[in-house]
Amino acid sequence: MRARPDAPLRDHAHENAPLKPGTFAGYRKVITLIISLTLLQAALASLTLVVALHLRAAGASNLALGLVGSCFATGLFMGALFAPREITRVGHIRAFSLFAASAIIVSLAFTLSVEVAAFAVLQVFVGFCFSGLWAAGDGWITRAAPDHMRGAIVSFYHVVNKLGSISGPFIVLGLKGDADGFLLAAALIAAAILPVAATSNPQPETSHTAPFGPARIFKLAPAAAVAAFTAGAVNTAVGQLYPVYVAGLNHPDPLKLSAQFNGALLAGSMIALWPAGLLSDRIDRRLVMGGLGAVGAIAAFILALLGNVLPLGAFVFVVGLYGAGALSHYALAVAHAADKTETHQMTAMMAGILIIWSMGSIIGPLAGGAVMSLGLGPRGLFIYAGIGMALMTIFVLARSRVSDAVPVEDKGPFVPTQTTSLVLAEMDIRGDDEQFDLFDDTDASVDRS
Predict the structure, then answer these.
(1) Domain end (from 155, 188, 208)
(2) Are residues 218 and 184 in the same domain?
């Protein structure tokens, strides 16, 4: 059972002054920052699409495309570890500007070469920069939001961010030259600096909490650890390589279909997340995770076997089903681990589970690209995704049979969580005394699933 502290361990009187329920004062404190982060999501979504299609047009193999996707995830992981220290050193505004300026330079550098090696190196820097941008933005939002509105504001931020990710590829549709996509990404990143640089709101105090080691997370909540790893391994592969899959469907306009695919994928996750979360508050969260995994696996196999013959409406619907299953279970994994964690250790746990996701995201695109290269072609991406989701489903359902569910009265309320930065874990900060050790699984004596 999670311990409830008698008093909060931090006091930001100015930032968290009481606000009347129903007012928009809490949202006004972070709305400009949310706009900036939404522009960044649009930039990254457009950049991901253009990079994949650019390399495919240049004749890169599926394995090479997977390598490039893994390099992006590697950059995310490196940035997640480095960024909090840089933010502590120079502050949120300067750190945001530093990472954004670097991301602009890297986006423009893509126009200089079509070599896989060059793109792989640049993708490391893209992942590193965006990880830093998310760390600065997430930390700012979670600390500027009033305590009694933090969950609502972060949920609003997640939804608006998804809209940015959906819009990016559709903006690319209006471009003419191949290089224009990289110029668009650079312009969107530059535009994201403006609201941050012009804000009159004070930047928050800085802190950094070391995460639990992955071994400790697995001992604490095995189902959550496996689900988080699967989310990284499967969703990052699909997110990086879906333009290759779409291009292999022989559609007359693969760019337009890619934008529709991305939109349906994210819309499905947005529609399913809240109902799944609310249901998991009432029954064993592992059963809901297993149900989502089954939906994602079935949809993945349909896309692998029938994607090239489905009518457009049916194709978009199945993609939405896949997004509902595959892109929603990470938040439930975090919630399940939170149910097993002492309140004062919540920040360290959330950061640790994101480390597990990051490890999966490094392996996933390379594994997906390898499967696509085994004579299966682009449809191999969803064979890989379907197998990954099916294995996760079997594991979490098996865990629900061998260990008791967390009682409903011991559960914390579901809060949607997305995979952006380690500092987003500070949404529920209660302490910062945990030390990160990959092989440390001690002090995990609470009930395990």
Answers:
(1) 208
(2) no
Structural domains in the chain (count): 2
CA-CA-CA-CA dihedral for 277, 279, 284, 288, to nearest 10: -70
Predicted confidence (pLDDT) per residue in 1-56, tens digit: 444 333 333 344 444 444 444 446 666 667 888 888 899 999 999 999 899 888 88
* Average pLDDT score over residue span 218-226: 88
Q: Map residue 398 onto helix, strand or coil.
A: helix
Both 228 and 249 in a single domain? yes
177 contacts: CB under 8 Å, gap ≥ 6 = none
| Residues 271, 291 within the same domain | yes
Domain carrying residue 277: 209-449
Q: Is residue 191 part of a domain?
A: yes
How many C-beta atoms lie closer than 10 Å to residue 61's C-beta?
14
Cα–Cα–Cα angle for 73, 77, 81, nearest 5°? 165
Quote the pLDDT of residue 315: 95
Task: For residue range 349-399, list pLDDT tens digits in order.
Answer: 777 777 888 889 999 999 999 999 887 888 999 999 999 999 999 999 999
Paired tokens of 445: 């004596």
List, for residues 94-113, the tens digit of each pLDDT value.
Answer: 888 999 999 999 999 999 98
Residue 109 CA: distances (Å) to CA of 61, 133, 179: 22, 19, 10
- Residues 165 and 214 both lie in one domain: no
Q: What residue type is assigned to position 28 of the chain?
A: R
Supply 422's token pair.
């380690």
In the block, tokens 């681990």 appear at: 337
| CA-to-CA dists, residue 102 to 41, 51, 97, angstroms | 16, 18, 8
